[in-house]
Amino acid sequence: MALTRELAELHRIVFSYPAIDNHAHALLKPEFRDVFPFEGLISEATGCALTQDAVQTLACFRATAQLAGLFRLDPKAGWEDVKRTRQAMNYDELCRICMGPTRIQCILIDDGLGTAGMCEDYKWHDRFTASPTKRIVRVEIVAEGILKELMDAQLLSHGFDPLSFFGTFRAKLTSSLTASALDPEVAGFKSIACYRTGLDISVQQDTVVLEQEFIKMLLQYESARQLRLEHKSINDFVVNTTLRIAGQHGKPVQFHTGLGDNDISLARATPALMQPLIKAYPNTKIVLLHSAYPYTQQAGYLAAVYMNVYLDFGEIFPFLSADGQRDVVKQVLELCPITKIMWSTDGHYWPESYYLGTIQAREVLFQVLEVSMRREELTLAQATAIVTKAFFENANRIYNLGLTPVMV
């Protein structure tokens, strides 16, 4: 009877405790609500792999059932039924139906997805939370903006001095990142080096190589008038500059690790490659995003042995099956201190991503902790500490948010 009461109390806490969503993206504006395939809700695939294959996964079957329940559809409703129902709903109502049950108190939004005005401003999301939304600055987007401005000016002038160009870029990047670090609206930074050139980020920068890369970049830009930061030495320079400035101002730096679309090199997506970088910046808080799946244990190891490394267990909700999610959460807890773990939805575009990212995370965390309590491996107090730290306390401390949990 005592265990039954304790499990009931744990259930209450898991499903009611307010949460800080430490990594998410903005929702689409109403006029763009259907511009992207809705199947992106449950997969990072693209093309036919998304629209035909992703819907034939356990992750999609589970999401379909949960959304059918949320929208009060027949339990036998299928994926297309869910899509038709949401498309027919008033967008504001859809957002509130999805966001209401999440108990998300604060969202940290990376607003650098590059959707050309199709998404709402980060402050717009305050209508769904008890505490103000904060920004996460995506540093590659900042760097690209500066480089484009400099290259446009360069093409109007005569001659190109790569050393002077590098010096100007470095000064402008340092100034922009410092301004963001001092901005109270900015909770931290994020790097997508994992997508661009991989996580084997060099700590040492060679000025000569950088100058050569700037020349190549300028020639490519002159030809195509498009710029994407995918030159390794320049990417590495941007990341190192960010880590230095972030460390000076106490701002965490998030890194995309593991799980991503087919633009990523999976072999270079493991955070194990970041070990030299982690050692080089011991005063900078480094957050490994997306559970680093399928490299979760490696990420947990890094969080366990380095004071400045933290592990986010997000994006696996709803991308993995329930069994897969349970395995990942167990791997997170295998070695990683409970003071180092944080939860996120990686919510983006569709309000359903916030709903599924929250409800599935709460379900799975309860299931994992329940088993440990039944085995007498955890007390109720210990299990409760895991919940409150993972959902709220750790992010509140690491991002210096200064919030108090708002209990509903």
UniProtKB/TrEMBL annotation:
Transmembrane segments: none annotated. Gene3D superfamilies: Metal-dependent hydrolases (3.20.20.140). Residues 217-401 form the Amidohydrolase-related domain. It holds the Pfam family Amidohydro_2. It comes from the Eukaryota. GO terms for molecular function: hydrolase activity. InterPro entries: Amidohydro-rel, Metal_Hydrolase. PANTHER family: AMIDOHYDROLASE 2 FAMILY PROTEIN (PTHR43383:SF2), NODULIN 6 (PTHR43383). This is Amidohydrolase-related domain-containing protein. It comes from Ceriporiopsis subvermispora (strain B). The lineage of its organism: Eukaryota, Fungi, Dikarya, Basidiomycota, Agaricomycotina.
